[in-house]
Amino acid sequence: MHSTAYERLCGLMAAHDGRDALLYSLMDACVLTQRLTVTAPALAAASHVAAFHSQEFIKALQRPPDDEDALETYGLVDDCEVFPGLWNYACAVAGASLQAAALLARGAADVAINWGGGRHHASRARAAGFCFVNDCTLATLHLLRKFKRVLYVDVDVHHPDGVQDAFYQSDAVLCLSLHHWSPGFFPHPAGAPHETGRGRGAGYNVNVPLAERCCDAAYQGVFDAVFDAAVDAFRPACVVLQCGADALGADPIGRLNLTTRGLQACVRRVIAARLPTLVLGGGGYDGAATARLWTALTATAIGEGAEEALPSSVPDHPHFARYGPSFDMHTAPRRLRDANAPEALRAARDRALATLDVVRKKRLAAAAAAARRPPAPAPLSAAARTAQVEVAEKGCVQ
Ligand SMILES: [Zn+2]
After folding, report:
1. In a domain, 192, yes or no
2. CA 233 to chain centre
3. Shortest CA distance to 306 belongs to which of 264, 278, 269, 274?
4. Is residue 2 annotated as part of the catalytic site, yes or no?
5. Which of 135, 254, 288, 328 is the most buried (most CB within 10 A)?
6. CATH code at 137?
């Protein structure tokens, strides 16, 4: 999903100012945009946003209140301060993810990407963490109109609390997140491993908390095992994949130590599941690192040799100077010790696998119950229907 108008609207939020311009310029320079079907997204209407958000919150986004208390009520303070064009920005982000979901739902695409989306912290009536509208949730709700089960996967460094809360009691959406989790790190305490869902949703929420400076190899070991188990247990009909770039070691958030190659391996695994997949952006506070990551992930999503065709160095283009001093296409890890002990990672992985085993058992029990039910009567043939009508009209003579 892209157009210059959409790029401009995404750039209205100061935290990501210029990020989208860098990304699309780099993708152009790497000859990737020519291999994509680019769709210009339309703005969502308030009625679309209302599929998840409250009317009061929508009104606050449309006409932000004047007084501090009201702004605080809707979370429109600090990192979610009001800015000119806020409502148009929110409708642009929501509209792009909804349109991408619609493409998947009608089979017009196998993979749809909205790098301007992935705003996973916004709740029903409150903005949070640079997220004013929860396009992840809106798109997932849209996909549920077509697909019975949606697997939501989140590799942003922050836990997707807004999405988790939205589907916490649902067995139609399985939320899987790997994130840094420690006291004081947003949105702690949300994201704890014991948050596994409630009611019908018990077992359908999987949190894998990670300690500081997790590196590619450690992350990959957990991601592969947990993602494969989620697909096996839940049998999703489609996937929503939030790819925040702030888990990179090159990001100023600096809590994890992943590289573009590490996250590419995760996305490669998701794409290999061959399910309709909605790929979303998210955090990412170093424009050049984010552009590197999402360019690499776009190539992974395209497949067919696109990854191999990427140049090893950033090609000359209008934003070339932003990529110094290394100019490598891929980011490098920081030289820091990974605080994730192997036994702690194994424990986190095993806990996630145990939760997913609950989901697997529920699915098998539901299938067994369905098999025990007497079969529904087969539809009558045309001849049988005619005979039945004749009997009904003539009466049944004993
Ligand atoms: Zn984040």
Report:
1. yes
2. 19
3. 264
4. no
5. 135
6. 3.40.800.20
